[in-house]
Amino acid sequence: MDLTELDHVGIAVRDLDAVVGWYKRMFGAEVVHRERIESDGVDEALIKVAGSYIQLLQPYTDSSPLAKHLDKRGEGLHHVGYRVESCAAVLESVKAKGAQVVDEHPRTGSRGTTVAFLHPKGAFGTLIELVEE
């Protein structure tokens, strides 16, 4: 099995601070990491849940793919991130098996991870992120 564990669930939001505040009020959740991901045009806040994260994502530019997603689908579940031992190896493996990918090659993600995305059109409607720590 190439997927070793659930890394995170990505949630698209319009107001990052409001959503962070809601998670704190509702569940006592604390943000463990915040980062601006320039390559994706998003600001993120990570909330740790056991060995995984809730990744809250807000676009900071209208040209961000996430901004387009929010305009089309609204707030809510955006993608699921799975941990893998080798992002490059798993990406090449799924491409060889005919998977439709967003990223042809792995790239740097948040927290210094290596990531690549599989397109939802080829994954039964789910945007899948491969995450190597």
Characterise this structure.
The chain is α+β, with helices and mostly antiparallel strands and 133 residues long. 23% of the residues lie in helices and 41% in strands. The protein has a single domain, classed as 2,3-Dihydroxybiphenyl 1,2-Dioxygenase, domain 1. The chain contains three helices and eight strands. An eight-stranded mixed sheet has the order 2-3-4-1-5-8-7-6. Strand 3 (42-49) and strand 4 (52-59) form a beta hairpin. The longest helix has 12 residues, at 16-27. The mean pLDDT is 97.
Describe the SSE topology:
Elements: E1 3-12, H1 16-27, E2 31-37, E3 42-49, E4 52-59, H2 65-73, E5 76-84, H3 87-96, E6 107-108, E7 114-118, E8 128-132
Parallel strand pairs: 1-4, 5-8
Antiparallel strand pairs: 1-5, 2-3, 3-4, 6-7, 7-8
Number of strands: 8
Element order: H for helix, E for strand = EHEEEHEHEEE
* Structure classification: alpha+beta
- Report how far apart the termini are: 17 Å
How many domains is the backbone divided into?
1
CATH architecture: Roll
Q: What characterizes the major β-sheet?
A: 8 strands, mixed
Task: Kindly provide the radius of gyration, computed on alpha-carbon positions and rounded to a whole number of angstroms.
Answer: 15 Å
The strand line-up of the biggest sheet is: 2-3-4-1-5-8-7-6
Coarse shape:
globular
- Helical region count? 3
Q: Remind me, CATH topology?
A: 2,3-Dihydroxybiphenyl 1,2-Dioxygenase, domain 1
Question: Beta fraction of the residues?
Answer: 35-45%
Poorly predicted sequence stretches spanning 5 or more consecutive residues? none
Helix content: 10-25%
- Considering the protein shown, what is the CATH homologous superfamily? 2,3-Dihydroxybiphenyl 1,2-Dioxygenase, domain 1
Mean model confidence by pLDDT:
97
